[in-house]
Amino acid sequence: MKYTSANFQIHYLSSYTLLVKTDFIHDTLIVLDKEREIQVFHIYPSNEPDGDAMKLLGLPFQNVYVMLPSQSTVFIPGEVFRAEELDTYQAFLLDENKNRTEIHTLDNMNITACYQYDMLLHNRWKNIFPNAVFFTPFQAVLGQIQTHVPLQGTVLGVHFTDVQMDIYAFVNGQFKAYQSFEISNSNDLNYFVLTFCQAFYISLPVQKIVVSGIELEHTYALSLKQFTKQITLISELAYWKVDDGEVGRSLTEYQGTLDFVLCV
Q1: How many CA atoms are closer than 13 Å to the CA of 208, on its beta-carbon side?
Q2: CA–CA dist 230, 210 (Å, integer)
Q3: Which of 45, 34, 35, 37 is nearest to 4 (CA)?
Q4: pLDDT tens, 252-263?
Q5: Contacts 24+ apart (CB under 8 A), 119-126
Q6: How many CA atoms lie within 13 A of 150 on its CB side?
Q7: Three-class SS state of 158
Q8: How far apart are CA 57 and CA 38, in angstroms?
Q9: Distance, CA of 123 to CA of 144 (rounded, Å)
């Protein structure tokens, strides 16, 4: 899909925000103005950027956010995390190079994540936008999930990209676990939900499942209904706006990411 607002003006570039969502199949470019209106929405194959994408990527945006998948992640409870003990946490990551390891603390959950971006994707986008703010899907979803987490009961969250699902859980208001799996169909989805719940002693059906990265009408969301009586989107309030109705519907799956960027 490709959309450019009639109001998009190059001389307003300094006031625009560029959001890049990338994985191994598609890249998505979203440009928002200071009134949070979508000026550009463009999806293209990651390995085949078209002429319009190349022009956008060549513009000197000052406010750039890039969401990259993480190569590996480990979560440590805040009460035991020690920055000087990075070697201990490094053993749980795929790459032994500590220079590639990022640290992110989620104070409201009292957890710290040590993680590494996919190296090829990170290098690619760092070369294009050296001053961009990089973040991962887990930062976006965990940064917004709290309003959906009750003090009693179990909530599952599932975030989707083209080839991956991230599943996480809260039990009685406390963060329980977060894992990523590669999927290609609903059978994969069902298997990994069951595997995840069995590994962490989570009884099904759960009180609620919160999804992001897809619409509620998506086959994956429909499949998840068998595991809960309530399923909802991570972000139900649209802080952004767009004139084109079709684009607005397509943007639903990016809403959690957009809201995260707008709140940073």
Answers
A1: 19
A2: 9
A3: 37
A4: 667 667 666 666
A5: 119/71, 119/95, 121/22, 121/23, 121/24, 121/68, 121/69, 122/68, 125/20, 125/22, 125/66, 125/68
A6: 9
A7: strand
A8: 17
A9: 28
Average the pLDDT over 211-218 and give the result.
89
With a cut of 60, say whether residue 236 has pLDDT above it. Answer: no
Please tell me whether residue 179 adopts helix, strand or coil conformation: strand
Nearest to 109 by CA among 167, 177, 165: 177
Task: Please tell me whether residue 170 adopts helix, strand or coil conformation.
Answer: strand
Is this model's pTM higher than 0.90 or not?
Answer: no
Helix (H, G, I), strand (E, B) or coil at 199: helix
Q: Provide the 8-state DSSP code for 237.
A: S
DSSP designation for 36: -
Could you report the per-residue pLDDT of 193-212, keeping only the tens digit for each? Answer: 999 999 999 999 999 999 98
Please provide residue 158's backbone torsions phi and psi, each rounded to the nearest 5 degrees.
-135, 120
Mean pLDDT of the chain: 89
What is the side-by-side order of every strand in the sheet holding 70-77?
70-77, 111-117, 102-106
Classify residue 27 as exposed, middle or buried by CB count within 10 Å of its CB (0-12, 13-18, 19+): buried
The residues that bridge with 160 in the sheet, in sequence order, are 165
- Tokens representing 64 are 């750039």
- Beta-carbon contacts of 244 under 8 Å, excluding residues fewer than 6 positions away, are 3
> Percent of the chain scored above 90 by pLDDT?
57
**CA 242 – CA 263 distance, rounded (Å):** 18
Quick one: tokens of 49? 């950027």
